[in-house]
Amino acid sequence: MIEAMFKRVAGLDVHLSNIVVTTLVEQEDGKLQETTREFRTFAKDLDILARWLKEEKVELAVMESTGIYWKKPYSTLEDHGIKTFVVNARHVKQVPGRKTDVKDSQWLASLARFGLLKASFIPEKVLRELRILSRYRKKLTGMLASEKNRIHKVLVEAGIRLNEVVADVNSLSAQDIIAKLIEGEISEDLTKYLRGRARDKKHLLEDAIAVKLGSYHRFTLRMIREHIKHLEKELAMIDGEIYKGIEPYDEQWKLLQTIPGINTIAAALIIIEIGVDMQRFGSREQFCSWAGMCPGNNESAGHKKSGKTRKGNKMIRAILCESAHAAAKTNSQFKTKYRGLVVRKGCKRAIVAIGHKMLRVIHCVLTKRKPYSDPTISYELLVTHKNAARWMRSLKKFGYLPQYSPAV
Q1: CB atoms < 10 A from the CB of 247, how many?
Q2: Model pTM?
Q3: Residue 23: CA count within 13 A, CB half-sphere
Q4: Is 90 exceeded by the pLDDT of residue 297?
């Protein structure tokens, strides 16, 4: 017989408008006292719920991660000092038992009583609040990319092939040329706005913009450009708030920036998603499995089946894939690994593999509290190469090396 780990537990079945709560309290004679109550999800009702659980001396409260509905109840119970687990609904379904003829709250309480549920990772309150900004930032970033793509679509529709001259329609050269096209100027020599390698294609510019933009095209482009400026301003404000909120984790934030491919905003977003305490995840393998960045483990009778990555944290996956693209272009171990994988696996799988490797490095950096050191680079050789000439001059100056006079 399985021995109960908790004598006083509560299961919460959370919905949009109400919460059904079942408490299981073990009496002195070993009998269970079961109580079920229903609460609304208004703030005052959540406070009543928390006070009732404290009166019942509940040792552990358990709820499923249902959309975003669990967030406010969890925060309220946390403020009242009640130990609360948010569990994955998939894990609950995998536990065999009677799920069809009992209430969800009663079933959660029963599983919690015997310690059959594992708590999901929930970051600290300040990081949970910063996630509101990071999620909104992701939405604005998508809108910004969509608007920039819209500029290219409008130009192509009008018959302007600016992409034949510049590699990126959103580059400085292209933006200056588009601004002049919106003003209706095509006779002016626009080659002076070309920068870098685009100057080699001056002869193509006249043919690329030979078509005059119509009034509706100019109006649409003008509106899109104004919207882009507005979105960029909002993103800058959001980044400022994120940097301000991440100040308590300044040490870890700076350590993450030592990893190739991870810039200031990426480091801040990573901390918001995973926190700074790696002991919560266990080993590096468990950490990568939680994030959904490692290959799937599906083997039966000695035959390996699909190695597709499992579902995990979508935000951390997106951040790592973006950082992996940047890391693959740096002089580091990530570049070497990417070149070795892209031929056999293709670009997308290679990027996920680089993201997996970066996540293992992140776990190591945050655990040891030491900056990243690339194993393929001799930092001693780099320092010597940089300072050798100055060291030699100093050694000669102070007499550690003999002074040779030219032969007569």
Answers
A1: 8
A2: 0.82
A3: 20
A4: no
The tens digit of pLDDT for each residue in 149-178 reads 998 898 888 888 887 777 777 788 788 888
Q: How far is CA 347 from the centre of its chain?
A: 20
Sign of CA dihedral 284, 286, 291, 294: positive
- Coil, strand or helix: which one is 26? strand
The residue assigned the tokens 């299961």 is 11
- Superfamily of the domain at 8-120: Ribonuclease H-like superfamily/Ribonuclease H (3.30.420.10)
Distances (CA, A) of 98 to 66, 219, 228, 381: 20, 63, 55, 66
| The token pair that represents 4 in the structure block | 């109960």
Residue 125 corresponds to which tokens in the numbers above? Answer: 């309150």
> Which of 21, 2, 1, 25 shows the shortest CA–CA distance to 11?
21
Residues 6+ apart with CB under 8 A from 362: 256, 259, 270, 274
CATH of domain 126-245: 1.10.287
Every domain range in the chain assigned CATH 1.10.287: 126-245
